[in-house]
């Protein structure tokens, strides 16, 4: 099993476990946001490629490079736009792999500390809400940025 954040030094109390859990959920949400942002950029690149593909390759076009608008031909710009799109797709694939790993780590952390998500109306995700001596779980509310 993969190392879960916090395994090297065990959390001392429920609050520390809740903080680590919240941090892990925040990381996952940030990865989701970045993937969404990059997918929108890939979509924009596709729109540009489809718009300029049927045009004359010697026709001039403009491209933003580092905040500077430069004049090029479609023939010069098309390979760069394709490369950028492919690079974005590779980054998205790597982020998806990282997301899956983080999800597995989170599931392992939930299982290890018997974490149950507390619903807004008082229900619990896991209905085994019994307290058994030292083996009680940690209740965590919904994430703040949802």
Automatic annotation (TrEMBL):
One annotated GO biological process: response to cold
GO MF annotation list: protein folding chaperone; unfolded protein binding
Compositional bias (Basic and acidic residues): 120-133
Entry coiled-coil feature ranges: 78-112
InterPro entries in the cross-refs: PFD2 (IPR027235), PFD_beta-like (IPR002777), Prefoldin (IPR009053)
GO cellular component: cytoplasm; prefoldin complex
SUPFAM superfamilies attached to this UniProt entry: Prefoldin
Claim: Coiled coil is one of the keywords in the record: yes
TM ranges: none
Keyword Coiled coil included in the entry's annotation: yes
Keyword terms of this UniProt record: Chaperone, Coiled coil
Region (Disordered), start-end ranges: 120-146
PANTHER family hit by this protein: PREFOLDIN SUBUNIT 2
Family: Belongs to the prefoldin subunit beta family.
Protein name as it appears in the record: Prefoldin subunit 2
Organism: Erythranthe guttata (Yellow monkey flower)
Lineage: Eukaryota, Viridiplantae, Streptophyta, Embryophyta, Tracheophyta
């Amino acid at each position: 099993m993969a190392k879960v954040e916090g395994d090297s030094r065990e959390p001392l109390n429920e609050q520390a476990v809740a903080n680590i859990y919240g941090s892990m959920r925040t990381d996952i949400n940030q990865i989701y946001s970045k993937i969404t942002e990059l997918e929108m950029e890939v979509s924009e690149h596709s729109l540009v490629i489809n718009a300029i593909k049927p045009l004359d390759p010697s026709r001039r076009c403009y491209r933003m490079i580092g905040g500077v608008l430069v004049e090029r031909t479609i023939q010069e710009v098309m390979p760069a736009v394709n490369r950028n799109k492919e690079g974005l797709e590779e980054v998205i694939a790597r982020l998806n792999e990282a997301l899956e790993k983080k999800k597995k780590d989170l599931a392992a952390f939930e299982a290890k500390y018997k974490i149950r998500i507390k619903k807004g109306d008082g229900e619990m995700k896991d209905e085994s809400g019994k307290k058994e001596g030292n083996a009680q779980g940690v209740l965590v509310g919904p994430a703040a940025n949802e």
